[in-house]
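Risk register update: the risk of archive-format incompatibility is retired. Evidence:
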Amino acid sequence: MIEKFRITLKHYRTIVQQGIVNLPQESGGFLGGKDGLITAIQPIFNQHLYSKVATFAFTSDDIIRAHDFFKKNNLDYYGLYHTHPNGVAYPSQADIDTGHRYHFILSLRDKESPVFAAYYIQDKVPLQVPFEVIPDDGFEKVDLHALTKEKSKINPYQVKTTEEEAAHLHKLIENIKSEKTNDYPKLPPRHIDRSDFSTLA
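Archived output:
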């Protein structure tokens, strides 16, 4: 079990803005890194056909692509992150039943003060893992509460507007789809013998 997770401010902002842009629907993806430091995210589309507001769904192909991506970049696969637009940052029974060892839940019940928490699942019981956001240079911890209060002032961790972040995230996703970036290359589909399935969270 990893004793503490850390994530760079850049990746944290990307996840929060992905969640806000997709409200009221749930959104998410996969996280990877080394030694508890999250250095890569792979956002995915919510695959649920009917209830994207209350459920986040993904397929076995999504999981295979995530494992392949992190392995190709010499990173460990940590698990699924997704939002709870109106709920708390705690795994639901459906989350636990996905079988992932780690879960990362972003509560957007208060969009001005999002709560991002990590959990280790042991015998179907979520155990919270300490989680902190660090600057992109990786040297100091970021106080997210102070960041929220100071976001109207000029500071090195100034939060971009929702429109700016939405445009940036849209560009990243389009680059991934059109293979214009090496950061998140699109891998060819893998053919497997077992049938495809949907997993809910």
